[in-house]
Structures are given as C-alpha cells and as structure tokens.
UniProtKB/TrEMBL annotation:
Keyword Kinase belongs to the record: no
Superkingdom classification of source: Bacteria
A UniProt-annotated Pfam family: FAA_hydrolase
Keywords associated with the record: Metal-binding
Metal-binding is among the record's keywords: yes
Name listed for the protein in its UniProt record: Fumarylacetoacetase
Domain spans labelled Fumarylacetoacetase-like C-terminal: 28-227
Annotated source species: Pseudovibrio japonicus
Length: 228
C-alpha cells in the first residue's frame, strides 16, 4: 500500500437493487440537449447535430434523497435524466456492441445553477460552475440491466410538489444510449464505473427550498428528492 501525504479520498459508490455490493463510480459524463423539445426550449436547433458532453464529478452523485439548495445562485433548475452505468470500458466501441458495456440504469437529476451557467455561456466559459457543484446529481439505486432489459422506450417524468413539470419518452432521445457510448469512446477511454446522464426532456424549471421533486422512469419506478 502506498503512503499518502493527506488522507486518500473515499471511493464514491452507489447502491444496487437486490445486491449488498455497491457500484464504484469512475467518471460522470452528461450529454447536452438530447431531446428535441428541450433543445428548442433552450433556444437551439433540434436537428441531429453531433452530440456534446460535459462532466460532473463522481462525488456530485448523491443517493440521499436530499438536495441542499446551493450557494451563489437564485435560479436552480431540475433536469430529470436516465443514468446509464457501465461495467466494461474501452475505446472505439461500435454501437452494435455498446450495450454489452451497460451494467444498469438509475433515476437521476442534473441539477443546474442556471444563472451561473447562462453567464458562463455568454462569456464562452466552461459550464462546471453551473453543473458540477456539490450534490448536483441526485440519483436512485441502480437497477441491473439483467433485470430491466434494455430501456430504449418508456415514460420519463418529473413532478414538483405533485404537479407534472417534465414528461417524455426514452424513445425521444436524439442520440440513443448505444450511440452515446460509441461516440464517447472515440474521444475517451471509457472504464468500468463510468456513468452517463443521457439528457432531459422539455419542461425544465426552477425549484425553491421546501419543494419536493418526484422522478419517474418506466421500468425503474419513482424516487423522491427533497429540496432543503
């Protein structure tokens, strides 16, 4: 065992449905504007342009069911997403073989400090200040693909305080899961433990302290996240 000059960071891990073992997280990739209606509401052309990705940090993933309202922002938005967990990595993975790399799926949120992201966009700067803050990705337990099958269609939705705000279908993804994996593997060496947040449907909007968000994806059930 090597000696370190400071205490080594803990490995981030996520619970798995029906398994006492946990899933260790390596990297977190997020695809932007992957539903046509969301691209339109954000002021962009919904045509099938090449995908783009940004990253969150592994410890941004938070299975606690609590979302502390972050500092330095007064406009924090919800974005419900399907999270895809990989158990195999590699480079130049073909779309035909990509699903062999998927361990399972989970409900997730890409919480966004929209005002800080908007400022970064205007100035041509990276988005991390708006996307990769502490606990910015609430996530549910992982459902192994061996139990769910491939989730390429099914309702995805989000309610705030009981009112439906986002609703769509996984078949509306512009870039499907195998294509996302293949594209990423052309630019990065994917690894076991990588997580991909696959994009959000239309209807994103702000939350406030005290709100209750309820996520739903057909095949994965629902989860509740409280804004504190």
């Amino acid at each position: 065992m090597p000696k370190y000059v400071i205490e080594a960071p803990q490995i981030v891990s996520l619970p798995i449905v029906g398994n006492d073992a946990a899933f260790p997280v390596h990297r977190v990739y997020c695809i932007g504007r992957n539903y046509a209606a969301h691209a339109i509401e954000m002021g962009h052309d919904p045509d099938r342009e090449p995908p783009f990705f940004f990253q969150k940090n592994p410890d941004n993933l938070d299975p606690s069911g609590e979302f502390p309202y972050p500092p330095r922002s007064s406009d924090v938005h919800y974005e419900v997403e399907l999270a895809v967990m990989l158990h195999k990595g590699g480079t130049n993975i073909s779309p035909d073989n990509a699903m062999e790399h998927v361990y399972g799926y989970a409900l997730s949120l890409d919480m966004t400090r929209r005002d800080l992201q908007a400022n970064a966009k205007k100035m041509g700067r990276p988005w991390e200040i708006g996307k990769a803050f502490e606990r910015s990705a609430p996530v549910g337990p992982i459902h192994p693909i061996s139990e769910t099958g491939s989730l390429d269609q099914g309702r995805i939705a989000l309610k705030v305080n009981g009112e439906t705000k986002q609703e769509g279908d996984l078949n509306q993804l512009i870039w499907k899961v195998p294509e996302m994996i293949s594209y990423l593997s052309e630019y990065f060496e994917l690894a076991p433990g990588d997580v991909i947040l696959s994009g959000t449907p239309a209807g994103v909007g702000p939350i406030q302290k005290g709100d209750v968000m309820e996520l739903f994806i057909e095949g994965l059930g629902s989860m509740q996240v409280n804004v504190t």
